[in-house]
Amino acid sequence: MPNHFFSVEDCPNPIGWINEALKLKNNPYGYKGLGINKTLGLIFFNASLRTRLSTIKAAQNLGMETITFDVKKDGWQLETTDGRVMDGNHVEHIREAAAVMGGYCDILGIRAFPTFLNKKEDYLEKYLLGFREYAGVPIVNLESATLHPLQSFADLMTIEQHKKKKRPKVVMTWAPHVKALPQAVPNSFSQWMQYYDADFHIVHPKGMELDIQFTKNAKLSYDQDQAFKEADFIYVKNWSSYHNYGEIQKNRKDWMITLEKLQSTAQAKLMHCLPVRRNVVIADNAIDSHHSIIQDQAYNRVFATQLVLKKILIS
Ligand code: AN0
Ligand code: CP
């Protein structure tokens, strides 16, 4: 039976996995034989730097081969709805395409962002579920419409690595942006934080509330200055509105992260998943300061993914 990785809920022991991934980092080539004669297919419907490169690196560390496919650039436009008369722009159906790709590969990683056209459809995760249904091989979520679990896994590894107290105060803050961005990163981070021993806060302007199926019992507030007090980690991310789906808030420069704001915390570590627009989301003086652990987050992506692939290979 395929062993999929869609979210933290597919992980039987998230804290155990964080510790295992940190160990793997000290011995990255110790399981090089596991992936011999195995192929990982990386299917991208959207752009990527970190996910693409760190996943290739993770596969190589395990001895796997990779095939990378940019669907929008090189592939046919896929239909995801059943029963359609396909006389428009969609050339093939996900039923055939996923089955073909699953035939060539032993594991498939999929990146498929939301369209922002229809919240219900986006939150149904048609691409990921279509691949799960028809590919016949394990599917790894490389950021879907609603979740980015490999990012959050690496984020928690990074917190674990840097925390100075048993139960740190972790604040995820909304920050401004010029475009409508998905809720996947904050949804996923919130979901993983449910399993982690921390005082977890989410702060954002009114109207930017996330889906409570992911935020659950996080402490929600609207005052960034207040939330930053005594914080040990500041996780910065923009997202567009969930309730007024895809709407953005303009002229919110007051929410940009600056060095002055970080100085009001308990010497907090600054986190962001990248890519980040400097001086829109985070000011130069903050991102270039000693507070930043952003590069550690990006580096840990390799080992978070390597652990997930290892678990699938040995299952
Ligand atoms: C994406 C997002 O916000 O979900 C990817 C982040 C990992 N960011 C952009 O599209 C800029
Ligand atoms: N953080 C992250 O997933 O980056 P990419 O979008 O560049 O892969």
Task: Describe this structure as you would to a colleague.
This protein is of the alpha/beta class and 315 residues long. Strands 9-8-7-10-11 form a five-stranded parallel beta sheet. Strands 2-1-5-6 form a four-stranded parallel beta sheet, with helices on both faces. The model has no long low-confidence stretch (mean pLDDT 97). The longest helix has 21 residues, at 294-314. The protein has helices at 14-26, 50-61, 71-74, 94-104, 119-123, 126-134, 149-162, 184-193, 212-215, 224-228, 259-262, 284-287, 294-314; strands at residues 39-44, 65-70, 78-79, 92-93, 107-111, 139-141, 169-174, 199-203, 219-221, 233-237, 269-271. Bound molecules: N-acetyl-L-norvaline (AN0) and phosphoric acid mono(formamide)ester. The site of phosphoric acid mono(formamide)ester has 9 residues, from helix 2.
Structural class: alpha/beta
| Poorly predicted ranges | none
First-last Cα distance:
9 Å
Shape: globular
Number of helices: 13
How many E-type strands? Answer: 11
Helix and strand element order = HEHEHEEHEHHEHEHEHEHEHEHH
Helix content: 25-40%
Report the biggest beta sheet as strand number plus sense, adding barrel if it closes.
5 strands, parallel
Bound molecules: N-acetyl-L-norvaline, phosphoric acid mono(formamide)ester
Radius of gyration over all CA atoms, rounded: 20 Å
The averaged pLDDT comes out at 97
- Percentage of residues in strands: 5-15%
Order of strands across the main sheet: 9-8-7-10-11
Which key phrases capture this entry?
globular, alpha/beta, binds phosphoric acid mono(formamide)ester, 315 residues
